[in-house]
Amino acid sequence: MNRGGLAVWFWAGVVGLLLAHNLYIWLGARLATDSDILALLPVENRDLVLEKAFGHMVESAQQRLIVLVGADDWEKAVRAADRYLEALAPGKNLVTPDQEMSPQGEQDSLALFHKHRLVLMTPDDERALRNRDKQYWVDAALSKLYIPVASIKAGAWQDDPFGLFGTWLQARARETPVRPRDGRLFVADGARVYVVLPFMVRVPAFSMAAQAALTPLLEDAREAARRTDSGVEVVAAGIVLYAGAAAAQAKWELSTIGIGSLLGVVALIWLTFHSIKPIALITLSVGVGCLGALSICSLLFERIHLLTLVFGASLIGGAQDYGTYFLCHRLGADDQLDSHQLLRRLLPSLTLALITTVAGYLALALTPFPGLRQMALFSAVGLIFAWATVIFWFPALASRGESNGGGPLMRWCAASLQYWPRLELHRLTLPTVALFGLPAALAAFGFARLHAQDDVRLLQNPPKGLIDEQIQLSRVLDAPAPAQFFVVRGESAETVLEREETLKQRLDTLVEGKLVSGYQAVSNWVPSLRTQEARRGLVDERLLNGAGALPTLARRIGSDNVWIVATRERLSKSRDKLTPEEFLSTSAGASVRHLWLGPVSGGYASIIGLRGVNAQSLPRLREAGSGLEGVQWVDRVGAISEMLARYRTYMSWVVLFSYLAVYALLHRRYRGATWRVIVPTALASIAAMAALGLGGQGVQLFHVLALMLLLGVGVDYGIFLQEEPSQRDPIAWLAVVLSALGTILSFGLLGLSRTPALRAFGLTMLIGTMTVWFMVPCFAGAEAPRKKLAAENGNKTKDNES
Amino acid sequence: MNACWAAAAALAALALLGAAPTDKIQSMLARPKVLCGRFDQQKQLVGLKKPVVSNGRFCVVADKGVLWRTLQPFPNTLKITRDEIIQLNGERVAVRMDARQEPAVRMINSVLFALLAGDLDPLEKIFEIDGALQERSWSVKLKPRDAGFGKVISSISLAGGVYVRSIVISEASGDHTKIEFSAIQTGDGAIRPDEAALF
């Protein structure tokens, strides 16, 4: 068996393995896909406490689904909510009402609070204890006594005569606008009353099967609720809804881009070769590329992100390059030339083209975004496998003498080249200057209008309806912000609570100034031991002891010393200390359990959640957290935006240096003509950026990353044309045209994606590739004819020798 | 929450000043547009030997609401309207509960205003009603249907003839409140100008 045969069998073995592995992951359902947008985000800081905090905030929300069923009166809302629940009942293996948040859950915590009521008071009352005189407290107790019924109090009057505990309980109830009503949860906004229906999703929120089952169920329930009355409104929010929408979108885009690219490529090849065999061969190389990418990625990554597959679908347009390049040359080559000899001649340029493109993709892996790394690796591996299929199999499969003269595209291509304008540096004519000067002026104008855009929303663009409902729900429920909060740390639980209390004093000023509507903290429920001690002292001094309010109160209500002693005993009976652990195990504790990070490396930590956060309050919140020991302000949205900005700058430099590196790499082969290979791509990058400026779009990281890819792809065309004996050879030109059309098709389709990041990639590549395509022949044919002829003769001789 | 329930119970009871369950009792009761009078309140609190006594004036104004003014020994005013419940210490608003945000307030008000309009259904929804009827007087005992409510209020008893004469509220904590009404006046002249000004 000769070397060629060995190569064929070797590759057949590899492809066999790929097929087997793909069957295994598809049929065995071992391919775990991911639609969690957070999985795309970098884990940049290795701060374990922060990671745990993010985890807590996400976990507490991930499996939850909150639905508001609203109407203009309560009865209608209840009726509609009942229909909603009935419609969901068949899906109880998917989603069930969340018992923890039901109105019945409140009672057991009350017993614990009641036991510790002496130290449970609002900061206002604590201040009043310090500042107000005895008469104030006597009056407070009497007023509670004489109003018609014990209106505002918890339990018997004698258990809380001064109302401190009752006021505290009310303050806790006010942390949420949700109220129990007729055994349900009630909330109201200006226009409507709502039944709040909290659900737990019983299947993983990011499982696509779960989403597929859940989405129609929820839609039916919504319809059922709406049918009860024309004024009924259903507002739903939950990560599962976002995940479902993202997954559905990704699937649709995956098939559009995949099928679109494939059909386009097949059409191109048919138009070029007018033969079935090339179509089969190209599809084979692209197919092996895709199988390889899937196999390797599923081995390297735990799960493959759906957006990777969407991005990977654009691979079809790129992976066909090598096959087309080979087939074009087979078509153009002398029938005498053996396919293996042809390969040997094409190998350097094919390899160089592969290296530049793969390098372009791998540059994406320089970013800390796990999603981008996966996309980069997927594409790079796909290209390598497609390339290897061409190298190992095409010489054997595409034998000589099979051409039928080609299709219309080939003839058009050959003809078109003559009409292409050429850039001859020593012959600058007015038309040439106009041809290049006008775009240059436009580009300068576009560049002047460029601005940066680093919003985190680039990563995801959920349907507007979902966002609107989420915003409405957050507003009605006055829910805490999931991505902005404080992390408080300390050596012990006590230190954490004490530091929370210090921070809360600053936050109170913001609440008073209406910059935020409130905050959630474990220390709202469990004061630090220091505070518990101080409060006990205060109550003793100001209320209970001989000089306090209690004896005066006793005189006013005509009670004797026995009552004073008994009441004092009763109130100060419990000297136990209330601890976070004790509180968190109750049902009231469940609502803030996610705020308590508990023991972490280096001590304890907790989260303070904030309600009613807006753009104005963010800087003030950051300020409030500064200078406090153990307090850290966390703004995940801001941090991601900052990171996007930082990497946009960083990658811009990487792009610049890559041009230098590619120049150095190419210089070894092309010497003085290297600039002819690289300048069209550089100009295309400028054109793409200028187009952004002209279109009023902001430059983001993903545009810059696309420039990196463009370098990899665009330089290929330069190489293909520069490589030829005659640089204006129609065959090389045909390969460039086919490759460019494939890339334009794939990335153009990617440009239709709803994910802004992918759209940025797609559009940049689309404009860039089109420009390179247009520019490459202008730069390629500029050598002096005499030299060109000599080169051609030289090459011919070489061919004959081999 | 408990506080709200307690207030709800009290005010639902107050609402009965103008009406009582069952059609017969209802037919016995006068339903004036304005009804004012004196009340004497006696509270028997757990742990206190002596009852705590207070008195004051009350007014029920159809379509507007209820005014409850404690005069002795401690001035304090409670005003219940369709939209809110306000407790005034002198001029100062001590407590305000908004009916839009607090369902308990909404419930109180819906009961109150339903009663003022002679519609007894809302009361049946909230309480089990047990009534006794004599020739010229009646008595009624209300027990909360809702378990959470029941943890605060164990029962409310009312008695009266043409007007409600007394209310006894028994709280689950053991505290009892007895309110007696007297010197009842009706008609536009019943309400004093400073009271009318509060609406």
Overall CATH class of chain B: Mainly Beta
Q: What's the CATH class label of the domain at 416-475 and 636-802 in chain A?
A: Mainly Alpha
Q: Helix content range of the residues of chain A, please? A: 55-70%
Tell me the strand order in the biggest sheet of chain B. Answer: 6-5-4-3-2-1-11-10-9-8-7
**What pattern of helices and strands is seen along the backbone of chain B?**
HHEEEEEEHHEEHEEEH
By secondary-structure content and strand pairing, the structural class of chain A works out as: alpha+beta
* Low-pLDDT ranges of chain A: 149-153, 782-802
The N- to C-terminal Cα distance of chain A equals: 21 Å
How would you portray this structure in words?
The complex is a heterodimer of chains A (802) and B (199). Chain A is α+β, with helices and mostly antiparallel strands and 802 residues long. In chain A, 65% of the residues lie in helices and 9% in strands. Chain A is built from 31 helices and 15 strands. In chain A, strands 2, 3, 4, 5, 6 and 7 form a 6-stranded antiparallel beta sheet that branches. In chain A, helix 9 packs across helix 15, helix 11 (306-313) packs across helix 14 and helix 18 (493-512) runs antiparallel to helix 25. Mean pLDDT of chain A is 83; it is low at 149-153 and 782-802. Chain B is built from 6 helices and 11 strands. In chain B, strand 2 and strand 3 (65-72) form a beta hairpin. In chain B, helix 1 (2-15) runs parallel beside helix 3 (103-116). With 199 residues, chain B is of the alpha+beta class. Chain B starts with a helix and ends with a helix. An 11-stranded antiparallel beta sheet of chain B has the order 6-5-4-3-2-1-11-10-9-8-7. Mean pLDDT of chain B is 75; it is low at 1-9 and 17-21.
